[in-house]
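Many introductory courses stop at the sequence. We go one step further.
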Amino acid sequence: MGTPPLRNINELYDEGIVNGTEEAEQFWGKLPKDFSAIGSLCDLMDTDRDVDRLIQILREFHKEKGIYSKRVERNLQSIRNGSILGGQQPIVLGGPSFIGNKIAALVFTSEIMEKEGRNFAPVFMIGSYDGLQKELIRSYFPNPISPNATLLDLETDQLPNTIADKIELPGSEWFESIISHLEESFRGFRKRVKGAQQKLVDERFDHIITLLSLVYRQSTSFTDMFIRMWGTIANVVNDFGIVFLPTSHEDLKDFYLAPYLHFLDRIETYTEKFNEMTRKIEEMGYNPSLPNRSLKYSPFYLICKCDIRINPDIKKEGDSRIAHAHCKECGNVVNVPVNKIDDLKKISSRLAPRVDTSQLVLQDILNVKVRISGPGEIAYYAQVAPSIRAIGVRTPVFVKYKRLFYNTPWNEKLGKLIAGRKQGSLHSERMFNSLKRRIHALKTDDKDEVHLAELEINSTIREEYNKLLTKAGKHDPAVYLSWQFGRFTPEKFGQEVSWIWIDMALQTGLNDYLQTYYRMYTTHSIPGTAYFTNTNL
């Protein structure tokens, strides 16, 4: 029969949220049952940080990008108390809709903290230190005639692992081609709505294209366009006051040096704990997200003179530590000492944090109280968080944002059709009864009933999806799996994960896009569960 496949470590996190298992807490620490419990798990300790300089750098950055406001300034000052952190690598045209979800979760969490007297800054980290890979340069829009997706590609010939901050933004011909692809797919869906609804969806599409055109013309790079787009939606269209943290900003890189050195000085303790947690994860029947670490593991990437991100080894030569790396693209060989801060200062502009140290670095400069994360981040924190704690660094409360499935006129029409055939659908009486149950529980402020309703909605989404998979060979179920569940390839699951943010914004309009995510959250919401909202034109 063979060995059963290892489970995703995210499942342990989800079980820990619902059941409060000690097994989960050894990885992530105390887990909140719902959003109302987050504040009670936050420590109120401060750290010795150069906050004034940090705030000034970020203030100037927001003003230069046109995303500064009085609320941004208020939140910049709140960094003194600590922060609530989310983040994402830059992705072409703004990327999938879950980025909007992360931003809304940041806002909601910061507001419930504020009501409890904890004024923490909502900070969105731009992971522009990441290397060029297909996840960054591709976004997808639903295809109106098949389960396939419409590809929106950056079309760059820059080398893999070019640092994201150095990826160039293509010329106007590329942008016009992208808009043409979007318009073609949009026309196919537009035909499915009539009358006033058609006029409304036309207006919303025009608003979206205007925003894209505006930020494209203002931007000087791939990363710049990403920041301007989400900054405009969050802080101009909505007055959320999100603090955006550009990790590759040259004036911030000196802030990272002390955490790097802290890691290097304690590499034995870190690797021992990391590999211990990897073994535990495997012994419990789960799949570790990251490979084991060795004593040569570096806390940073080196950015080569050709802008390629290369992975150094840390070698011991007597009492000295040497970062050694060889660039396969240009042949450049790097051998630099990394024994003290002065060594690191000499190469600070060429250093970029890694998965293990990004949280350590951000914890040091931002005093992070809460980390809003997706499934991928939660998975690798199972190994990274205990290891960071082992070298004396506090970790935040880890909160997985809720996943959202949303309605469209074309999804609803097709969903009702296949629901009538008993093939599986979110457009079913079962789903709408669960939604009514949740609404009633919220009106009566029945915490336990809200929890039960949310778990019921979560189960319904999973079960209807699995039912549809058995019919995936038929055209209508396959199309519904694509449009409603974002499954245009076997490994994809989730509208907001698969589809560019534009798909949902067509249903809500730009003004209500982030607000739709925000309204999904309540103090009784369970982290990590999936939800369905009846967005419609």
